[in-house]
Amino acid sequence: MAIDQTTAVFAAELILLLFFGRLLGELMTRIGQPAIFGQLLAGVVLGPSVFGALLPELRHLVFPGTPALKSMIDAISQIGILLLLLLTGMETNLALVNRRRRAVISSSLFGIAVPFACGLLLVYFLPADLLPNPAARLVTALFLGTALSISSVKIVAMVLMEVGAIRRDLGQLILATAILDDTIAWVMIAVISGIVSQGAVSFTGIGASVAGTALFLALSLTVGRRLVARIIRWSNDNLQTEVPVITAILIIVLSMALATDLIGVHTALGAFVAGMLIGQSPILTEHIEAQLRGFIIAFFGPVFFAVAGLGMDLTTLFHPQLLLFTLAMILVASVGKFLGALLGGRVGGLTNLESIALATGMNARGSTEVIIASVGLSMGALNNQLYTMVVAMAVVTTMVMPPTLRWVLNRVPLREDEAKRLEEEEAEAGQSVPKMERALVCVDESANGALAATLAGLFVAHQQVLTTVMTRNDETSAHDHLTQAAATAVERMARAPAAAPTIPLAQLVQTKHVHGEDAIEKEAIKGYSIAFFGVAQPISATANQFEHQLQRLVAAFEGPVAIAVNGRNRPFVADHPLSILVPAGGGTAARLATEVALALARAGGGTLTALHVFDPQEDTDLLRGRARRLGMSVLIDARRLGKNRGVSVKGITAVNVRPEVEILQATLEEHYDLVVMGVALHRSDTKFIGPRSAAILRALRTPVLVIAH
Fold first, then answer.
1. Which among 419, 454, 472 is the end of a domain?
2. Distance (Å, rounded) from C-alpha 191 to C-alpha 185?
3. Same domain, yes or no: 458 and 370
4. 357 plus 322 within the same structural domain
5. In terms of domains, do 635 and 597 share one?
6. Count of CB atoms situated within 10 Å of the CB of 223
7. Is 33 within a domain?
8. Does residue 414 sit in the same domain as residue 439?
9. pLDDT over threshold 80, residue 470
10. φ and ψ at residue 110, rounded to 5 degrees
């Protein structure tokens, strides 16, 4: 076949795989099943079972199976495995595993050990003609035992979200156990692949595989974690081409997959661990993750699962003996997993009902099983018949799990502490500050600059966010103010009952020198969550807008900006408990200001006063106090957030058609170290603040942090 014809046939194969994969995946989604089943079904339809049986000549024309075409489609499929494992690793939250580690570890270990042993025994009952290599029965037994014992974290998470149990204690426990299952699975596959590569079972080879895997994991979870974060951060901040972070992620994944291959274990482990490290990177914004996920799900996912379906020959299941063994495999996998996880749950301290729910939730194989089966087929540990049986088992167990889990969960009552936690989480669901990952600090040597740097230091200490301080070559005080305030806050929080920050400040704060007039504007577009600005003259004396220098910075930054205005024009220190006033309103900017104020109060060991000013024109008898009820709910919400943060919040109210007058009066009657004020930016040709906000800033002599958004 000529090269151009090979390319044309390859393109036709991809078109069919993508089209039918997307079409049947959409159909499965609409009937409440995972889309991967439709993509698998697309492969079955295009494979020997349907397309080959109905139109064998046409199928041979489209899928001729020539070495060149086979290698091309296999290459896409193998890259698909690595990228799907990248996504799985990114969804792996080891902190979640650590929260309930006793129950998670016992459930996972028993849930793997029992079906693994059952799988080993099952292989020794299989006839020799059903094995790829009867002389290496143990290798097939090890692989099939692994395949029968693992759950799919992606399917488990999807089902828990579907039944509304993802935030329940039991739902989190099931998800954490599935995460540990997945992690153990790829370590087991790595070791087994090392055995397969040796060509025979030897304790020396097993020892080498285990040692290589342990060394790889140790280096990855220590040095590798920091290295991956730095690579992603450097790519985001220094490369100017499009989507540089995605390129960096792909290089990291392929490099770690290559590393595991070089030490004699499967590339799958490298891709999975790379996903774990990448998922923990603070620079992986939702936008970047969505681009990466879309790139994989739109192309590599459908192609991989459709190719996996191509390898299935359902006609083999028509043979009575093979059908019997398939049913036996489904029974062994389901009963073994259920009994193992049930026993593990009881050992881990769960009740009978909770253990039953956990055991039911762990009985879904889904995409993980298909990937494992594909790896086994490519390594020669499985043949096409066993491969078809394993994938059929994965489909059946996954389809049965959702309705049974829903039935069981409805019978597990909420605990009192769990109900309280769910209520608190629901109240905090709309918060913005906990989601912030990076802060930019741009200040000069003025009193406003010192105030901004100090407050940024408190914020960094509390939120543990990566922070970049922009300074000129001859300016060092900004970095000093920030780190000194942060260090004081860390010491203060360490003495409090709540957990103290764990990341060293040296790893969080970096300094960049400004070179050129537009250096800060270029830095501001590199994915920061919030920016702290402190310049000598922030607000125009005659107009409701920022001064020229600050105006350019605010225009370049898309997120919320915190602008410091030191009305006293003297050094601001945070060496005593801070008393903070925040005007509390119902708008987005006011809510964000309350969140920032709480973070500063917590880091400053101080208290917060929330002031809400009612407009009498909106509180008439005709409106029946609607404005007052809404205002009180704002104060109640501030108190609830303060309680969760460990900050004492006092709510006060006033009635005035001009709220700026009441804010100024509050600062005159009571001593406050800081006012944190939310301001909604108006937008036309440029961003500007309203006349009331400008009037307040000009009148206040108390230091102010404006949260403009």
1. 419
2. 10
3. no
4. yes
5. yes
6. 10
7. yes
8. no
9. yes
10. -65, -40
Q: Are 366 and 202 in contact (CB under 8 A)?
A: no
Is 424 inside any structural domain? no
Percent helix, strand, coil in the chain, to 5, is 65, 10, 25
CATH number at residue 71: 1.20.1530.20
Mean pLDDT for the chain? Answer: 80
List the beta bridge partners of residue 610.
582, 651
Q: What percent of the chain has pLDDT over 70?
A: 83
pLDDT reported for residue 428: 59
First to last CA, the chain: 62
Q: State the CATH number of the domain containing residue 575.
A: 3.40.50.12370
565: which strand partners?
A: 704
- Residue 339 has a pLDDT of 92
Residue given tokens 């996903």 in the structure block: 275
Give the pLDDT band of residue 251 (cuts 50, 70, 90): very high
Total domains in the chain come to 2
Judge if 328 and 466 occupy the same domain: no
Please state whether 527 falls in left (phi above 0), alpha (psi between -120 and 50) or beta.
left
DSSP 495: T
Q: What are the tokens at 463?
A: 């939120």
CA separation for the pair 631, 21 (Å, rounded): 52
Q: In what order do the strands lie in the sheet with 649-655?
A: 509-513, 466-471, 438-443, 530-534, 561-565, 704-708, 674-679, 579-583, 607-614, 649-655
Which range marks the domain in which residue 144 is found? Answer: 3-419
| Structure tokens belonging to residue 276 | 């774990």
- Is the pLDDT reported for residue 287 higher than 80? no
Which residues partner with 509 through β-bridges? 467
- The predicted-structure confidence for 305-341, as pLDDT tens digits, reads as follows 888 778 777 777 778 888 888 898 889 888 999 999 9
